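Methods — Computational structure assignment.
A single polypeptide chain was analysed. Its primary sequence is given first, followed by the predicted tertiary structure written as structure tokens.
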Amino acid sequence: MEWIRATELAKIKGVSDRAIRKAIISGKYKGHKVCQRYEVLVASVEEELQEKINNLYTPKTNNSNYEIPISEKSKKRALTKFDIVMQWRKFCINYRGKKVDAVKEFISIYNTMTSKEFSYENLNKISISTILRWDKTLKENGDNWESLAPKYKPHSYNESFSEKEKETVLKILLNPNQPNIGKAIKLTKHILSQQGITKFASEMTYRRFVSKYKQEHYDMWVFAREGAKALRDKVIPYIERDILKLNVGDVLIGDGHRLAFEVINPFTGKPCRPTITAYQDWKSGAMVGFEVMLEENTQCIASALRNSIITLGKYPKFVYQDNGKAYKADYFTDNNPASGLFIKLGITPIFAKPYNAKAKPIERFFREMQDSFERILPSFVGSNIDNKPAYKKRNEKFHNEIHNKYVPTLNEVINYITRWMLNFHYAQPCPNVEGLTIGEVLEAGKGKGVDISELDDLMMVTVIKNIGRNGIRFLKSDYFHECLYGLKTQVVIKYSLFDLSSIKVYTIKGEFLCIADRLEPIHPLANYTGEAKDVEELKQRLKQQKELEKQTVKQYLKELKREKVYLPLLNEQEPVIYKPIEDKKLLLESLKDEEIPPLKKLYFITNMKDMIT
């Protein structure tokens, strides 16, 4: 048998139960607690006790020629015992004195390990009776070392433990509801008792059977109780990747992480937990770019990617990232070369399988970041209910009073993470290149640099918009430039996710028109209660209106100078040809009274004078 109850061992040894428990606690015996009872590993007790236990509890076999196989561990222990006996015999031959004194001195030297010659790692301290018994055993068996091997026999369950019991307890345990083993044993006995069975095996027999079944059918145990994902995560062999075959910047791994501390929400002024989107270089393990925002969105991901490219000094070949909706937005993956970001940057995107965190090494980086950075901030609140700091728990008045109430802003957090990344993260050993730090591997593989203005232009979003009275209406704001005045057509705009103060405007054919600036609303009483800035802005807007009106009049006058022919449609009279009049005064004199209706005469002449002047 492999394990024995502490109470049974105490009876065999002739000591109290408490003595056995103390031996387990002190480490003399190896044991564990099962069902409010202690069990001791048979292999950890004295040799003489092992033989007694073996004789008492090993079931008899009808085959007297049954050979007990010797395990590698038992073989190693037996050979160690054989060497000790040989050393003892040699010691006795050279010892001058009584044999009893020789044994005592040998045991003293061996147990205190004062001589390397008598040092053995496979055995604990031995006694005089033990070495004498080993010597006697060897002499009786012709100094055959196998006689010192333990006489363990394969474990066989009690005959009273029937197949019906095994089948019933497994039916209960192999359930996705994951029933408790102890309750399953009670239910098994209750079910079988209703079927007329009254004789049952002991609870320890049930537990040993379940333990052995779990060891021999671990795949079935996990799949039946925890499901297919647990089977893939715990049992099915995993694939090892040779990261050394990559170069720095070949593959960036991107993902988002909800930070476990609070920041000040810039819109509400209340504390909230922000989100970080980061990209990690697979070869060096370095976080090369990140962005912190309130929520994960396209702008956050694009900013983190931009920062990563600038840090690397080159464009990555592949981006291995999360399977989330924001990462698959049309801005990144649109197959149109004019709009898909990855196509424009020459990057091949790879998306991880859903609910497969082990495929993204950046998950481990986020755990390390939480332990080495997030936990040191005063506003740390924990990632879940079991991970909360003391001041967040119920009735913790003392910790709540001494807690530092400081909550950083988003900009402060970005600065903190940057300093932590440069000073601590980059100084850690590289997990993929032995002997170098993360920063050293990253620095050795950086590129020559990228043109930031060209990068920003490539990362712009392309949208088709209509031109209205106030220019282009986009994101609840108006963007205007004088070259858009008078146009009433569709145009193509390009805007940056990082700067919405202006947009680039192109024709449908791709010809550049202008850079339109965002128009800010004017104070309703700028001339009376507004600031100097509001007053100046109002003046500029009014001035712009007048200039645009003059521009229209000027263009109209040019049209009047052209020679125009009007063909009558209702009669056969010859067409009247109106020739342009160069002189403004002659134009007014040519407007005769009889040609203008009486009610509209004054109004028409007044407006014509204004237009001409």
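Note: The two ends are 117 Å apart (CA to CA).
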